């Protein structure tokens, strides 16, 4: 079945649409490559792929300004690429190499970039939500007009610390957008099996925080909602909640056989709602791009991704004396 086409004419330039296509494709192809490297044993430990959810970060990055911050969970490669981190550094970190963002010592879930204001990569479910409120507190204190995007999942949205963060964020009018990436599953548990209330964003109402539900398979809808949320925060009105309805095509992590849902369910989403195919259709039907133009973008992305894998493979593993750097202890323990 062909991807569902939007009936409303998008208020967006050809260049902008092409940039979204490109940015989403980079995430997808990068992660497909990461999946391959994992299969070859070049990536160890955990690896949570974002494939299917690309429109969420690409749409919200389109609403962000230089200096805005982002913090997220372990499903973080898309967030890093979307905010402009170097694919070479991300792939080298995934493979545990010296050229990685955490010098090969952090892996998939623990990468950071001061330059791009990316504050991780967190393996503890929902831990990043109060951290996001804290980042926004710092910006409010400095009165610098910056906004923080704190991303978390539907599973995380059932954690108590989220509501402590909501309470303080509204109380202190913190410039933070709480982004619930509702991909309908928390590991093998569907939202239907875990959650009483029909919507997550409405829980903010109890704290006086406005919010809304957004179609997370439509990058333009995400961008529009993001702009509204960011404008609210920058105007000093406090936090905003976006519940973005999305879907992950792959298992929870590389080691998940995904037996809790049918293949048909996943295929239907891919066929009818795919975020990249939707933009591709908009570009072609609106005659903003030709098949040749898109092929050129595809080729360019393939080269970037292949180069990142080559860079990672050529980068050495961290030297042994690196064991004692970037940790709390300042000195190696003395021999007994
Ligand atoms: C505090 C804590 N509890 C449990 C886990 C194990 N765990 C890891 S991911 C996950 C599911 C989270 O699902 P969700 O928030 O929907 O994010 P998604 O994986 O769908 O992106 C759980 C329970 C953990 N890492 N941390
Ligand atoms: Mg989830």
Structural class: alpha/beta
Distance between the termini: 68 Å
Q: Extract low-pLDDT stretches.
A: none
The major β-sheet equals: 5 strands, parallel
Strand order of the largest sheet: 1-2-3-7-6
- Please report the number of helical segments: 11
Q: How is the quaternary structure best described? A: single chain
Give the mean pLDDT: 95
Q: Note the run of SSEs as H and E.
A: HHEHHHEHEEEHEHEHHH
Dominant shape: globular
Bound molecules: thiamine diphosphate, magnesium ion
Considering DSSP H and I runs of 4 or more, what fraction of the residues is helical?
Answer: 40-55%
Number of E strands: 7
Rg, rounded, reads: 20 Å
Strand content: 5-15%
Describe the structure.
The protein is of the alpha/beta class and 336 residues long. Helix content is 42%, strand content 9%. The protein contains 11 helices and 7 strands. It has a 5-stranded parallel sheet with strand order 1-2-3-7-6, sandwiched between helices. A two-stranded antiparallel sheet has the order 4-5. Strand 4 and strand 5 form a beta hairpin. Helix 1 packs across helix 2, helix 1 runs antiparallel to helix 10 and helix 2 crosses helix 8. It is globular. The termini are far apart. 47% of the residues are buried. Bound molecules: thiamine diphosphate (TPP) and magnesium ion.
């Amino acid at each position: 079945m062909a991807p569902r086409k939007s009936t409303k004419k998008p208020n967006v330039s050809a260049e902008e649409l092409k940039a979204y296509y490109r940015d989403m494709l980079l995430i997808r192809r990068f992660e497909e490559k990461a999946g391959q490297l994992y299969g070859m044993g070049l990536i160890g430990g955990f690896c949570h792929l974002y494939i299917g959810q690309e429109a969420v970060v690409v749409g919200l990055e389109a609403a962000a300004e230089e200096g805005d911050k982002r913090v997220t969970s372990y499903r973080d490669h898309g967030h890093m690429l979307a905010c402009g981190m170097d694919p070479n550094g991300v792939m080298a970190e995934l493979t545990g190499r010296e050229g990685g963002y955490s010098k090969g010592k952090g892996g998939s879930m623990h990468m950071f970039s001061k330059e791009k204001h990316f504050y991780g990569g967190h393996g503890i479910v929902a831990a990043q939500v109060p951290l996001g409120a804290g980042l926004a507190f710092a910006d409010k204190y400095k009165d610098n007009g910056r906004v923080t995007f704190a991303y978390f999942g539907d599973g995380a949205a059932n954690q108590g610390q989220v509501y402590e963060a909501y309470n303080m964020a509204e109380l202190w009018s913190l410039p933070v957008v709480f982004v619930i990436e509702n991909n309908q599953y928390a590991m093998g548990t569907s939202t239907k099996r875990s959650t009483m209330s029909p919507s997550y964003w409405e829980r903010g109402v109890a704290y006086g925080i406005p919010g809304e539900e957004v179609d997370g398979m439509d990058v333009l809808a995400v961008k529009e909602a993001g702009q509204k949320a960011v404008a609210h925060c920058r105007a000093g009105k406090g936090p905003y909640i976006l519940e973005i309805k999305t879907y992950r095509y792959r298992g929870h992590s590389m080691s998940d056989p995904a037996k809790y849902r049918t293949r048909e369910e996943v295929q239907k989403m891919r066929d009818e709602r795919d975020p990249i195919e939707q933009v591709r259709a908009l570009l072609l039907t609106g005659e903003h791009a030709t098949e040749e133009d898109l092929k050129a973008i595809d080729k360019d992305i393939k080269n970037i991704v292949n180069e990142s894998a080559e860079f990672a493979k050529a980068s050495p593993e961290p030297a042994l004396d690196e064991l004692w750097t970037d940790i709390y202890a300042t000195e190696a323990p003395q021999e007994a």
